[in-house]
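User: Working on a comparison across species. This one is Sulfurtransferase from Drosophila mauritiana. Can you predict its structure so I can line it up against the others?
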Amino acid sequence: MATYEEVKDIPNHPEKYLFDVRNESELKETGVLPASINIPLTELEKALNLPEKDFAQTYGRAKPAVDAVMIFSCKAGGRAARAANLASTLGFTNAKAYAGSWTEWQAKQS
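Assistant: Here's the predicted structure for Sulfurtransferase from Drosophila mauritiana:
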């Protein structure tokens, strides 16, 4: 599990990835986590299977290596856990969920 402190420090760690798996409409309502890449959960498997060049063109960042730290966030943690499990199934060895997700982030930013 990823912690609030780890997520807050992501902008200082370009080698780590923070994926927000909420839908675009949710992001418009609430805002986004700093340095996060939005890939809705329904599109995640396809995105993580893209060739490196296509991933970089689509998301503006190099595709994560299989051993890269990948943190997944959503609204309350459920989809983030499913996303981390999916990434692990696809062979990514350092995938983890931010259990508090947007709900905790927003509460601690106030």
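For your comparison, note: The two ends are 23 Å apart (CA to CA).

User: Helpful, thanks.
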